[in-house]
Structure formats: structure tokens, C-alpha cells
From TrEMBL:
UniProt-listed InterPro entries: Kinesin_motor_dom_sf, Myosin_head_motor_dom-like, Myosin_S1_N, P-loop_NTPase, SH3_Myosin
Record field: compositional bias (Low complexity): 195-211
Protein name per the record: P-loop containing nucleoside triphosphate hydrolase protein
Residue ranges with Basic and acidic residues bias: 1054-1067
Organism expressing this protein natively: Rhodofomes roseus
SMART domains, A to Z: MYSc
Highest taxon in the source lineage: Eukaryota
All copies of domain Myosin motor, residue ranges: 77-820
Length: 1090
């Protein structure tokens, strides 16, 4: 919970106490393994080492001085913009974020972008009243907020007529999805506020040429940091601003597209209960008058593997559980007759999430479908795919002794085939015994149990991914309008940089995307800085920070002489005997080997290292070193699905299912694949790998972003326990590096991040240079030059422009310290003089009292002595009588004096009132003159600049006039020649007109001939159709003859085998008979001889 708000006096006293404590010691940040950084102060320095006392426990540590980070003064605590810190280091950045987060401020600016830390609780920061507060206000008029970024994009789009983009990145659980929804909420609200709901079927009329700026409320809510818990959704409490009730149909459809995308694309993970498992770029188009004219959504990198497998502590996509909890009669239609625990793809992981009611979310999903315009049939088609995935997961596959896969229970397959509109026999054959092309022949291949299960998993992933893509296309059609579109604001919600214990192919694609986005951010950020330097006339050597990341990008994506990781992976996917190991070895040979003598090493080689212990490699990204494991990369990149299944599904009787696989419907059949009668058709997208598709999508995204003016939001996860108010400093530091926050600070250090207008610089620091600036008016730039000379600043640490003075990081801190020291000395002496005066005054009072007491005592003693003396008593009685004769005269004199004094007092009072009124009028006139003088000074500066530009323009115009005069003389001569040519052309025109008439007659004859040829073409087409039918019949007859020929060949082969066996038996019989004959002959001879 945020800390209680202090009164102004208490806050000032607290700030003064902290500043006094800070000035007493040399405070630094000490690196710590557990806490990240600890506060401490240096007590001793010896060469490069120093002794530091840790503030939290008093421990003394001896550390090298370079490891310490300077601490900012307490007045910079909880600063709205990190770039305002005088010491830009990691410790100061994370300390400021921690202080703001602890006080309830989840948003902080960091130069050009916004840092948003997930609060893990509902905060009243997004009501219609807050929308009204940020509407039409500058960034510095309100606390940091996501609405301020959206407002800046809206204003820039209206004023500059340039497309805008808001890039929201961060880890899972950082709040990217919620930030995206808040941006869309704000844009829909202010567009509706600017233009009341109207029909979007026609283009709205243009009533004002600059309506972006003509409708801005002038009042806002006071800045506050109090937070109260509220429920889900957009709060409308706190003001009478009811933009939500006035949303038009298109605005409501844009907002209601989010629940649909979240149901089908979000899931519960260990870090986030509603994590987007895909990236999206939402373009909201606006018409020229500022009203919303349509929207479009592009999606990237859907985690389709989640439908099949995930961690035990996570869930699949929300829609599965919503359908099972709230489906009702729809479940019967989809043959879903059990609960979550009855389906294999759901029962092995988490089933419920705290704080999420799946039945309630189902009702919201159905309402969103109706708002966006989905028909009941379209909804049924989407849920048909969801149910089919669940049924496929329940299909049981076993194997025989020969390791052949079999399906013992076909009931689940029958349900799948019923939902998908295909036959059970074809589906079973495609899964268990698909036909594959071996050379020029089709053969049946028996699958093993694991191969069949993998085939079913691949089918589920493909079905869900294609259905998700079709869903997004349908939403885009609903959000499209025929009205004129002028500009758009795009919101990019994509996963940030990822470094896990085991990093695979998905992490490479995500990190490659973030490498490109960071290069875009670096270029844009410093391009703006350098443009301001140019406007201010500062000497500056242009630096292209986008090149810093180019070697890593080339290492991943390049092709040509040097083959990048993705290009080599695509190449290996088409090699017949390629494996993950051969791919890894080729990578090592290309990027880790020494270049040949005389060859320059590729810049990407410095970013690549072979992994030491595992099969993989290491890439040095901008956010750190990442080790990738290459196991299974070839299969993930090819994303295989056998042709048998795609052909079966493309021929589905369900139109929606067939449309998902329409690209495979043109594939040649098994029988006709080798025929020569038709030209073989190549399947659309058959050779496009996952890497190729992602590179194409990323190139398109970057092209869109480069055509826009970007705004950046970096979302941060404060802790891994999802607890509000807690900050894990090492975790936050790691994300700051990965999100490029610290990279942006590194860039800022090379430039001049701190800047002040001349007037402000002079007012604040003139006290450090007394007597340098003479009395009277002096130009601001000249005054600053005199001041920096007197301050003896190094010229390398500052630059003076035309209206501002720029400083390197840390220079203003040094000036602040010098100013604080001087003011401390001045006020110390002032306090000493004041204390001296008050002490002397008090002493005088004491002395005067002592004298008065002694006088009173003396008079009392004298009175005591005279009180009883008779002569004194007589004197006291006679004394009043001595003056009684003069009392009347004195009374009249006193009355005259009193009347004169009254008259003088009245005259003095009238003169005093007249002088006071004169004084007030003179002071008002003085203020007016001073204001006019300041305005005249500013106007004089503008007029000087305008005069210089006018003189330059005058010289340019004089040159142009001289050139135009010369051109005029030339044109006069050309005009004479043109008149002559005109006469000649008129004569030629008559000739050509005559020729044209003849050509027209010829054209009529040709048209009549064309009609004859068209009729003849129709007759030939009819004959061609008849011939085609004959060809088909002949083909069918040929197929029958081929089958008959195969049967005859088989019969001949059997007869030949029988004949061979008979021949062998006869030969063996003949040999036996011959043997017997020989023996008989020998016996006869023996008998004869005997």
C-alpha cells in the first residue's frame, strides 16, 4: 500500500533533514549479490581501493572504487523521469523505480519511453475521470501514465498527420496485454469524445480541418498518488465522463476483439494468469476528422505447442476450459461428454486458476462474439476445431510385435472425423499407413507408435494455428470499414528478450525479433537527440547506434557469402541426411573457425561462440550472452505434417475445415502424380519454413514501424511471487538490461541528456557567479557564456545552443553541490548574524529590566522614608492648590492643540491612503512593464531569427527571379517556334483525322471478326470438354487395365514359380531313376560275370 501523504511543512522538513544527512557523508551504491545494491558511505580511500560502511547494518567492506556507483541527492528521490537523474547508473535507476513503486507509482518515464511495473493489484488509474485528466494535457502536466503515451501519439498524429506506433515489450507477466488494452481503451474513449457515435458504413463528413486539437477539455483532476482497489474492467466511477456509454459500434467491436483474442491466444503460465502466447500489432485507423475508421490485427509466433504439451503448473489456452465449463448444449453438439479430467491434453496440467471464473469468462466471450458480428455458424466452426483437438488427444495408439502402429479403439477417431467432415478409413490410413513417394513410385509406409502420436500432435498444432489465423482474419473483416482512412496508431504487444536455463528455437526467434526492435529503438532515440542538437546548432559528430546491433542481426539472418543461423537451418532442412548435429557442426565451421589468410573476419563472428558442454552455440545479444540448445531444431523449423492428412482435410465436407487446408487442395493425386497429360502443380507454401515465415513477417513489421513515429513502453515484472509492493532488485535489473532501459541510458551518456533553458540556468546558478553579469538586460546566450567561463567548466562537458544549454550526465549534480554548498555558507552566516541580533536584543531587555528594578527599589525606599515625615505630608496637601489658577488656561490650550493634532492626523491619513493607492498602481504598472519587457525580449529573439531567415530567403528569391527572367527569355523564343510547330501539327492533324476514319472502319470489321472467333472458341471449348471426358474415361479404363495387368503379372509369376518347382521335382526324380538304373545295370553285369 502507498505511504501516507505528508503535509507540505512536514515534507519540507523531512527533505531538509535528508539533504543535511546526505551532505555530511560521501554516499555511494555498493553492489550486492542478494539485494543488487546497498547504500553506504566511503570512509577511506587508498589509491584504487576504498572502505565503505553499509548503511543498513554498519558492516565495513573494502572494494575497488570503480565498482562503486555515485548516489543522487535526496531531492532526486521518486523523480518522474529517470533521465533527470544526475548520476545515470544501474543502482540509481533501480532505486528510483523501487521508491516510486513502493509509493504506488507504477509508471516512470525514462527519457523517450515509459517504464511500467506490474502492480499485481487493481488500481483506480484507468477510470473515465483519469482519461479526462490526461486528455489534451502535456506530458509534464500529469504524473507518468500509459494514457500520457497514448495522448502524445494521438496529438502527434493530428498535428503532424503522421502514422504513430506504440511498442509495448516485456517478459511474460509484466503487464503487456493489460497495457495494450488500456491504450486501446483510451484511444476509443477520446475518439468517441471527439466525435459522437455515428454510422461507420459511410465516411464521416469533415466538419473541421483540425478537429484533433479543437476538442480538448481544459480541466483535469489534481495529481494524486492515492490508490483504492476496484474491480475488473474499466471503472467509470469518479466523474460524469461517460464515454463508455457513448461508444459507437466500431469502438465497441475494437474493445470486444480483446476478449476473443485472449480466449484463443492467452493462457495461464507460472508468471502470469493471463499471458499472451502470441505477439500482435493492432493498427487503429483514423479518418481525417479524427474519428476511428477501422482496425487491423497482425499476429506473430503463436505458441501452438501449448495445445499438446505444457508444464504441470500451467494451463492450455483459456478457450478449452471455458468451453468445458460453460458450453452447455454446445458440448453435446461437439460430442464433448466429459469434464476437463477426461481429456488427455488437459488433465496432465493445472485445471483451475485463482481469480478466474471460466463460466463467467465464457459468457463474456459469447457476448464479444455477438458484438464483433460472428454468426452462430462461425462460432460453431471455431469451437469445432477446439473440440477436435481434445478428441484427437484421446485417440489411443498401440503397436504390434513388429512395431507397427494400430488403433485398437476407433470411437475417438470417429468423433474426430465427424467433427472434421472426413471419412474414418482415410483418416486412419493417413495416420497409421500413409503412402509416400519413394523415387517415382508410391509406397505404403507403416508408422511406429511414436511416429503416429507425433503425427497426431502435429495435426493438432496445425489445426489450432490455422484456425487462429482464420479467426484473426474474420475479426479484421469485422473491424474494416469502407470509410476513408487517413492515419493510424499501431500498438505492438510482443514478448521481450528471453534468457532461460534451456533456450531453444522459439527463444532464438523471440530474441532475434527483440534485437531488431532494439536496433530500431536505438536509431530512433538518438536520431531525435541528434536532431535537437542540429536545431540548437551544437557541433556534433553523427553516431549510428543501429550499427552496434547489426553484427548480431547479420549472424542470425544474413544470407549470401556468409550464411546466418536461420539461412543455414533452412538449407539443412532440405538436405536428405541432415541432423541437428550436422547443423550445429556447420555453424561452428562457419562462424567459430579462423578466417583464411588475407580474409577479413565477418563482424558477426565476434558475437558467436560454440557451446562448451552441450550441443548448441552462444550468441552475444545486446541484453547478454544466451546459450541455445539445437535439439529438435530441424523438425521445429520444417513444422512437418504429412501430405496424406492435408489432402484428406482439404477434401473435407465441412467448408470451414476445407478452407483451412485450401492451399493443399491443388496437390496432385497419387495416381495422376506421374502422368504427363497435366502440368504438375506445386503446393502453395510447401517449402516455406518457420524461420522464413518469421523473417518475412518481421520484415513487414519493421517496414511498418519505420514508417511511423514510435513511442516505447517497457513493462517490468517486480517479483516472481506475484505479490504487490515487492521489488526483487536483481530480477528488475535483468529486465532493465533486456528491455534496453540501461542501453538507452548508455546512449544518453554519450550525448547531453541534461538541458536547461537560458533563463532557468541563469536564475538557478547566477548565485555561483556574483558580479559576472552586469545590471540591466543581457542576451541569455551571452549570459550563459560568461557564467560557464566563471564556473570554469570543461568545454567537453557542455554545449550552448540557441535557446538551451546542454550538459553531460553528472555536470548538473556538480553544479547543484556547489550551489548547495554556497547557499549553506550564505544561510549559515545569515543565521549567525540573526542569532547574534536576537541574542543582543534579549540581553538588552535583561539589562533594561535590571536597571528598572533598581530604580523601582530606590523610589520605594525613598517613599517609605518620606511617608511619615510631617513636612512631606503638608507638601502633598498644598501642591494641588498652587496650580488651580492656571488649570483653565492650560485646558483651553490643550483643547486647541488637540483640534490641531486631529486635523493633522486626518490630513496625514488622506495622504497615506493616496500614496498607498499610487504605490499599488505603480507596482501593477511595473509588473506589466516587466511582463511586456520579457515578451519583447522573446519577440526580439524570434524576430532576429526571422530576419536572418528572411534575408536568406530574399537572396534565394533574387537568384530565382534572375533565373526565371532568363527562363522567360528562353520561353519567348520557344513560343515562336511552338507557334510554327502548331501550324504544322494542325496540318498533320487533318491528315491523321482522315487516317483515323479509315482505321475506325477497319476496327468495325475486326470486331465483327472477333465475335465470329469467340463463337468458334465456345464450340472448341465444348469439344475440348468432351475430349477431356473421353480422356478421363480412357484413363479410368487404363487404370483398370493396369490393375488387370498387375493381376496377370502376379498370376504369371505364380505359374512360373509352380513350373520351377515341378521342374526341380522332375529333375530330382530323373536323377534318382538314373542312379537306380546305373545300380541295376551294375548288378546285372555282376551277375553275368558270375
Amino acid at each position: 500500500m502507498p505511504a501516507p501523504r505528508l503535509s507540505q511543512s512536514a515534507e519540507a522538513a523531512r527533505a531538509a533533514a535528508l539533504q543535511a544527512e546526505f551532505n555530511e557523508k560521501k554516499w555511494v551504491w555498493v553492489p550486492d549479490d542478494k539485494e543488487g545494491y546497498l547504500a553506504g558511505w566511503v570512509v577511506k580511500e587508498e589509491e584504487d581501493m576504498g572502505e565503505v560502511v553499509i548503511a543498513s547494518g554498519g558492516e565495513i567492506r573494502r572494494l575497488p572504487l570503480y565498482a562503486l556507483s555515485k548516489m543522487n541527492p535526496p531531492k532526486f528521490d521518486r523523480v518522474d523521469d529517470i533521465a533527470d537523474l544526475t548520476f545515470l547508473n544501474e543502482a540509481s535507476v533501480v532505486h528510483n523505480l523501487r521508491l516510486r513503486y513502493g509509493s504506488g507509482a507504477i509508471y516512470t518515464y525514462s527519457g523517450l519511453f515509459l517504464v511500467a511495473i506490474n502492480p499485481y493489484q487493481h488500481l483506480p488509474l484507468y477510470s473515465d475521470a483519469i482519461v479526462h485528466q490526461y486528455r489534451g494535457k502535456r506530458r509534464d502536466e500529469n504524473p507518468p501514465h500509459i494514457f500520457a503515451i497514448a495522448e502524445r501519439a494521438w496529438i502527434n498524429m493530428g498535428e503532424e498527420r503522421e502514422n504513430q506506433s506504440i511498442l509495448i515489450t516485456g517478459e511474460s507477466g509484466a503487464g503487456k496485454t493489460e497495457s495494450t488494452k488500456k491504450v486501446i481503451q483510451y484511444l476509443a474513449a477520446i475518439a468517441t469524445d471527439a466525435h459522437p457515435p455515428q454510422s461507420h458504413s459511410q465516411s464521416p463528413s469533415l466538419t473541421h480541418s483540425n478537429s484533433f486539437n479543437s476538442i480538448m477539455p481544459t480541466a483535469g483532476l489534481p495529481r494524486t498518488s492515492s490508490f483504492k482497489k476496484h474491480g475488473k474492467g474499466m471503472s467509470s466511477s469518479g466523474s460524469g465522463f461517460t464515454a463508455k456509454d457513448r461508444l459507437g459500434l466500431l469502438e465497441r467491436q475494437i474493445l470486444q476483439a480483446n476478449p476473443i483474442l485472449e480466449a484463443f491466444g492467452n493462457a495461464q503460465t507460472q508468471r502470469n494468469n493471463n499471458s499472451s502466447r502470441f505477439g500482435k500489432f493492432i493498427r487503429i485507423s483514423f479518418s481525417p476528422d479524427g474519428s476511428i475508421a477501422g482496425a487491423n490485427i497482425d499476429w506473430y509466433l503463436l505458441e501452438k505447442s501449448r495445445v499438446v504439451v505444457r508444464s504441470e503448473a500451467e494451463r492450455s489456452f483459456h478457450v478449452f476450459y471455458q468451453l468445458m465449463e460453460g458450453g452447455g448444449s454446445l458440448k453435446d453438439t461437439l460430442l464433448l461428454d466429459g469434464g476437463v479430467e477426461d481429456y488427455e491434453y488437459l488433465n496432465k496440467s493445472r485445471r483451475e486458476v485463482d481469480g478466474i471464473d471460466d463460466k463467467e469468462e465464457w459468457a463474456l466471450l459469447k457476448n464479444a462474439f455477438e458484438t464483433v458480428g460472428f454468426t452462430v455458424a462461425e462460432q460453431l466452426d471455431l469451437f469445432r476445431i477446439v473440440a477436435a483437438v481434445l478428441h484427437i488427444g484421446n485417440i489411443t495408439i498401440t503397436e504390434t510385435r513388429s512395431n507397427d502402429a494400430v488403433m485398437p479403439d476407433p470411437s475417438q477417431a470417429e468423433r474426430v472425423c465427424h467433427l472434421l467432415g472426413i471419412t474414418v478409413a482415410e483418416f486412419t490410413r493417413a495416420v497409421l499407413r500413409p503412402r509416400v513417394l519413394a523415387g517415382r513410385e508410391w509406397v505404403t509406409q507403416a508408422r511406429t507408435q511414436q511416429q503416429a502420436l507425433d503425427e497426431l500432435s502435429a495435426l493438432c498444432k496445425t489445426l489450432y494455428e490455422k484456425s487462429f489465423g482464420m479467426l484473426v482474419d474474420r475479426i479484421n473483416r469485422a473491424l474494416d470499414r469502407p470509410s476513408s482512412k487517413s492515419t493510424f496508431i499501431g500498438v505492438l504487444d510482443i514478448a521481450g528478450f528471453e534468457i532461460f536455463d534451456v533456450n531453444g528455437y522459439e527463444q532464438l526467434l523471440i530474441n532475434y525479433t527483440n534485437e531488431k526492435l532494439q536496433q530500431f529503438f536505438n536509431y530512433h532515440m538518438f536520431t531525435l537527440e541528434q536532431e535537437e542538437y542540429a536545431r540548437e546548432g551544437i557541433e556534433w559528430d553523427y553516431v549510428n547506434f543501429g550499427l552496434d546491433l547489426q553484427p548480431t542481426i547479420d549472424l542470425i539472418e544474413t544470407s549470401g557469402n556468409a550464411i546466418g543461423i536461420l539461412s543455414l537451418l533452412d538449407e539443412e532442412c532440405i538436405m536428405p541426411k541432415a541432423t541437428d548435429l550436422t547443423f550445429t557442426n556447420k555453424l561452428h565451421a562457419l562462424w567459430a573457425s579462423e578466417p583464411l589468410p588475407g580474409d577479413e573476419p565477418h563482424p558477426g563472428s565476434s558475437k558467436y561462440e560454440p557451446a562448451r558442454f552441450e550441443q548448441g552455440f552462444i550468441v552475444n545479444h545486446y541484453a547478454g550472452r544466451v546459450e541455445y540448445r539445437t535439439d529438435g531444431w530441424l523438425e521445429k523449423n520444417k513444422d512437418p505434417l504429412n501430405d496424406n492428412l492435408t489432402r484428406v482435410l482439404s477434401a473435407s465436407s465441412e467448408r470451414y475445415v476445407a478452407s483451412l487446408f485450401a492451399e493443399y487442395s491443388e496437390a496432385p493425386s497419387l495416381v495422376g502424380a506421374l502422368t504427363m497429360g497435366k502440368k504438375r502443380v506445386t503446393k502453395k507454401g510447401a517449402f516455406r519454413t518457420v524461420g522464413q515465415r518469421h523473417k518475412e513477417q518481421l520484415a513487414g513489421l519493421m517496414a511498418q514501424l519505420q514508417a511511423t513515429q514510435p513511442h516505447f513502453v517497457r513493462c517490468i515484472v517486480p517479483n516472481t511471487h506475484k505479490k504487490p509492493g515487492r521489488v526483487d532488485v536483481p530480477l528488475v535489473l535483468d529486465q532493465l538490461r533486456c528491455n534496453g532501459v540501461l542501453e538507452g541510458i548508455r546512449i544518453a551518456r554519450l550525448g547531453y541528456p541534461n538541458r536547461l533553458p537560458f533563463v532557468e540556468f541563469r536564475q538557478r546558478y547566477e548565485v555561483l557567479t556574483p558580479g559576472v553579469i552586469p545590471r540591466g538586460y543581457m542576451d541569455g546566450r551571452k549570459a550563459c557564456l560568461r557564467m560557464v567561463d566563471a564556473l570554469e567548466l570543461d568545454k567537453a562537458n557542455f554545449r550552448i545552443g540557441t535557446s538551451k544549454i546542454f550538459f553531460k550526465a553528472g555536470v548538473l549534480a556538480e553544479l547543484e553541490e556547489r550551489r548547495d554548498t554556497l547557499l549553506f555558507d550564505i544561510f549559515s552566516r545569515l543565521q549567525a548574524v540573526a542569532r547574534k541580533w536576537t541574542a543582543r536584543r534579549q540581553m538588552k531587555k535583561i539589562l533594561n529590566r535590571a536597571v528598572a528594578i533598581r530604580t523601582i527599589q530606590r523610589n520605594a525606599r525613598v517613599y517609605g522614608e518620606l511617608r511619615d515625615w510631617p513636612w512631606w505630608q503638608l507638601y502633598t496637601k498644598v501642591r494641588p492648590l498652587l496650580g488651580s489658577t492656571r488649570n483653565d488656561d492650560e485646558l483651553r490650550k490643550k483643547e486647541a492643540e488637540l483640534a490641531l493634532a486631529k486635523e493633522r492626523a486626518e490630513r496625514d491619513q488622506r495622504e497615506k491612503e493616496a500614496l498607498e493607492s499610487l504605490k499599488m498602481s505603480l507596482e501593477a504598472e511595473k509588473r506589466k512593464v516587466e511582463d511586456n519587457l520579457e515578451a519583447e525580449r522573446a519577440l526580439a529573439l524570434d524576430k532576429d531569427a526571422l530576419l536572418d531567415r528572411s534575408k536568406k530567403r530574399e537572396a534565394e528569391l533574387e537568384d530565382e527571379v534572375a533565373a526565371l527572367q532568363a527562363d522567360l527569355d528562353t520561353l519567348d523564343s520557344q513560343l515562336d517556334r511552338a507557334l510554327k510547330l502548331q501550324k504544322e501539327s494542325e496540318e498533320k492533324h487533318e491528315t491523321l483525322r482522315h487516317a483515323f476514319d479509315q482505321a475506325a472502319e477497319h476496327l468495325v470489321r475486326l470486331e465483327s471478326e472477333q465475335q465470329d472467333w469467340e463463337s468458334r472458341e465456345v464450340e472448341l471449348n465444348e469439344q475440348l470438354d468432351l475430349a477431356q471426358e473421353d480422356i478421363d474415361a480412357i484413363k479410368a479404363e487404363r487404370d483398370n487395365l493396369e490393375k488387370l495387368s498387375d493381376e496377370l503379372k502376379n498370376l504369371v509369376a505364380q505359374r512360373e514359380e509352380d513350373l520351377g518347382r515341378t521342374k526341380e521335382r522332375m529333375e530330382s526324380t530323373l536323377s534318382d531313376l538314373g542312379t537306380k538304373l546305373t545300380a541295376e545295370t551294375r548288378n546285372k553285369r555282376t551277375k553275368r560275370s558270375a
